[in-house]
Amino acid sequence: QSTIKWRMQTYAGPALAAHVIDPAIEMFNKIAGDRMQIELFYADQLVPTGELFRAMQQGTIDAVQSDDDSMASPTDVTVFGGYFPFASRYSLDVPVLFNQYGLNEIWDEQYSAVGVKHISAGSWDPCHFATKDPIRSLEDLKGKRVFTFPTAGRFLSQFGVVPVTLPWEDIEVAVQTGELDGIAWSGITEDYTVGWADVTNYFLTNNISGAWAGSFFANMDRWNELPEDLQTLFRVCCDQSHYYRQWWYWGGEANLRVNGTKMELTSIPDEEWAQVENAAVAFWDEIASEGEVQAKVVDIFRKYNADMQKAGRPYRYG
Amino acid sequence: MSQEHIALFMFGSMMLMLFTGQRVFGAIGAIAAIAALALYGTGGQDIPFSAAMKLMKWYPLLTLPMFIFMGYVLSESKLADDLYRMFHVWFGNVNGGLAMGTIGLMVLISAMNGLSVAGMAIGATIALPELLRRGYDKQMVTGVIQAGSSLGILVPPSVVLVLYAMIARQPVGQLWLAGIIPGLMMAAMFVIYIWIRCRLNPALGPVADDLDQVTPQEKRKLLWAGALPLIIFASMMVPFVNGWTSLVESSAIGALAALTASILKRRMTWAVFHTCTKQTLVISCMFMWIILAALGFGAIFDGLGAVNAIDNLFTEQLGLSPWVILILMQLSFIIMGTFLDDTAMLVIVAPLYVPLVGSLGFDLIWYGVLYTITTQIAYMTPPFGYNLFLMRAMAPPEITLRDIYRSIIPFVGVMVTALAIIMAFPEIALWLPGYVYGN
Amino acid sequence: MNALLGFSRAIDGMNRVIGLIVMYSVFVLMGILLWSSISKTFFLPSLWTLETAQFAMVAYYMLGGPYALLSGGHVRMDLFYGEWSLRRKATIDVITVLFLIFYLVVLLYGALGSTAYSLGYWGKAPLEFFAGLITGTEEVGRLERSSTAWRPYIWPIKATMIFGLFLMLLQALSELIKDVARATGRMEPEART
Ligand SMILES: NC(=[NH2+])NCCC[C@H](N)C(=O)O
Ligand code: NA
Ligand code: NA
Question: Can you tell me where the transmembrane regions are (chain C) (predicted)?
Fold first, then answer.
C-alpha cells in the first residue's frame, strides 16, 4: 500500500502559517505516517490565490485553507467568508454560527454543488487598520489605499477607503514602496507576527469585524477516496488548528495592545464609529437582496446577533 | 522518482534544451510543461498557465516596459551626445582621460534607465568610434564600455533590482539606494584601473590634441549637459523616495520625463519614436515570456518537492558554515550565469537561495547588491552574455570577437574585487538606505 | 510546401500588423500609471488603476509576443548555436521548435480551461464547453470576478490571453515551416518572409 500524498495550499504566507497551519499539518503527518502525507504550500506558491479555487476543483491542489472571499469561490456564500462587516464580535461567534445556527449545512450544500468538500469553518482575528499615518476620525480614512479583503473593501469604500488587493507576500514591501498606505486585514497579533508592525506606525482599536471566518476545503474526489479514519484524522487536525487560533489571537490581541511597542494605538470615538455600524445594516440589506442564499445567511446573522444582545453581558455590552 | 532525481532531471534537461539554441523561454517552458504532464499528477497541465495569472499580479513588473522605454529614448534620440562631449572636453587632456570620462558618462546614463542596453548602445555608437579614432587601445576601450554600461543595473533605477525585490520580497527603494554607493565605488575602481594602466603605458590612451580651441566659456556651458540626467533622475526618485508616488507610478514619470526631454531638445522624430516603441515591445516581451516560463518551471519544481533536495544539499548534507554557503551560492550564480539567462536564473534559483540566505542571518538588501554585481559579471562573461551579444552586434568592424572576449578579463577582475569588498564591508551597501529610511 | 510557405507569410503579415498596433499600448499603460499618480495627488485615488494597468500589461506581452518571435527578439543561448551555419541552425530548430510548440499548446489548453471556469463552467472538458457554447447546448454560468473590491469580470482578459497564445502558436508554426524550408534548401537560410 503506497502512501497517499496531498498537496495543500494555504492563503497565508510562511510567517503566519507557522502558527495557523504548520503545527496542524505536522501533527497530521506524524500520526498518519506512511499512510498519508500532506505537503503544505504557502500563499501563491503553486498557484496564485485568484486561481486557487479552480485548482482545487480540478485536483491540481488537493486541499485548501482559505476564506471564501479571498479565493472568490463561485458560490453564493463567498461574501460571508473573510470579514463580513459586523457579523461577529468574538472569535467564538464563528463556530457557534456554523455549528448551532445552521451555516454548516448551507456551506456544505453550496460547495458540494461546485465539486468541493467544505470540511470545517474556523475563526481568526478581528479586522483592524494598521496604517502609516494615524486614523482618529472617519475623515482620516479618506483616500487611504489599504490592503483588505474584497467584501470588506467594498463596504469600506463608502468611507473613502481605496481597497487594494495584492499577493499577500507583497504587502510589506508594497507599504514601503508607497503602493499602500496601510492594511485592514488582521488584528494586532498578525501585524506583529508577519512584520507589518515594522512598516506601519498606528493601530486603530475600532474594528469592522470581531472575527474572520475561513475554512478548510478539499477536492471532492480526493476527499471521498480517503478511508474514513483518515478523514476523521484530517477533521481533528483542522479542529486543532481552529483551537490554536482561538487562544493565540485572543491572548495576543490583548497582550500586544498593552505591551506592544511598535505601534501607537488610536481610536475613533464611539458616536462617530456608530456611522460605520449603521452603514453595515444597510450593507447587510444590500447583500441580502442579491439572492435567496444570501438572504438566508443574513437572516441567521440577524437572529444570532439579536440573541446575543438579549443575552447581555458578557455576550454583548450595551 | 526521488526529489533529488527530479531536481536533477529538470535542471539537466533544461540545460540540454538551452544548449540546442532554442529560444530561452521555449526551452524552459517546454521542460516545465513536460514535467507538469509527466510527473505532477492530476491537474498538472494547468500550472504553466496559472503562472501567467501569477505574473499578472506581480505589480512591480509594470515598471519593466517603462524603464526599457526610457533606455531606448535615451539611446535612440541621441540625448546623450552633449553629455559625451562634456566628458570629452573636461577629461580629454590627460592620458586615458577619454576612457575615464566614458565611465563617468556611463554612470550618468545609468541614472536615467533601468538596464544596461542604453549605455551599451550609446557607448558602442558614440564613444567607441571616437576613442578608436584617437588611437585608444581597442581592447581596453571595448572593456570600458562593457564594464561601464553594466552599471545600468546597479545605479537606480534598476530592472534587475526590481525583479530581485519581487523574489526576495524586499523593498525596492532600499535596494535601489543600496546600489548607489557600490555602483559609484565600482565606477571609481574602473577609473583607477584605467588611470594606472595608462600611467604605465601612455600609448593605451593618448591625450586629445584638439581641445585647445575649446574656450573656457564653452567648457563651462557644456557642464549644463550634466544637468539633464540629474533632472530626469530627480523627477523620478524624489517623489518615490518621499512616498508621494509609488514605484510603478514613478517609473511612468521617469519614462515621461525622458520622452519630454527628448522632445524639448528636438531629438524625437517620428522615426525615432517608432523605433523606441517597437524595441520596447520586443525587449519587454522577451523578459515577460522568460519570466512566464520560469515561474511555471519554479511552481512545478516546487510542487514536485524538488526544492527540498536543494535545501538538503546546502544545509544538511554539506554541513557548511554560513559564509562558505554564501560564497558557494555566489560562485554557482557566476557559473550558471555563463550559460543561463539572468532573469530565468533569478526566477528559478533565487527562490531557493534567498530564504536560505535569510535564515543564515544575512541581510537580504545587501545580498541583492551582491546578486546584481554577479549578474553584471554574467552579462559580460562568455559564452552566454547579453552584453557580449550586444557588443558583437554594435561594435565597429575592426573589433573582433577575440578582442571582445579578451577585453573583459581585467574588468571582471575589478568587479570580482568589488564583490569581495562589499561582502567584507556590508556597510558600503547598507549605509545609504539606512540613512535615508532611518533604521 | 508552397502552400505552407504562403500560410507562413500570411501569419507573419498578420502578426506584424498586430505587433505594430499593440506596441502603442505601452502608452496606455503609461497613461494609466500617470493618472494613478495624478488622481492620488489631487483627488481620491482610483479603485481601478492598478488592475487595469495589469490587464494592459498582460495584453501587451501576450499579443506582442508573436511579433517578438517573428522579429527574433526572444534570446537564445548561442554557445554552440552561434557557431553553426544558417542551414544547420534551421535543421536543429526544426526539431527544437516542436518543444516550444508543445509548451504553447499546454499554455493554450490551460488558458481555455481557466477561461471556461471564468464563464461558469466547472467540468473537466473545456473544449466541449466552448463547442457547446457555439452549438447552444451549453450556457454561460456564474461569471468569475476578480477578488478585489472593484470586482471586474475576469473573462475578457483571459479571452485576450487565449487569443494571444493562439497567435503565438500560429507564429511558432510559421517559424517551423520556414525552418523546414531553410533546412531543405527551399528558402535562402537568411531570408525572412
Ligand atoms: N534577462 C535578460 N534577458 N536580460 C537582458 C538584459 C541584459 C542587458 N545587458 C541589460 O541589462 O540591459
Ligand atoms: Na540604472
Ligand atoms: Na555570461
Answer: 17-38, 53-70, 90-112, 153-173
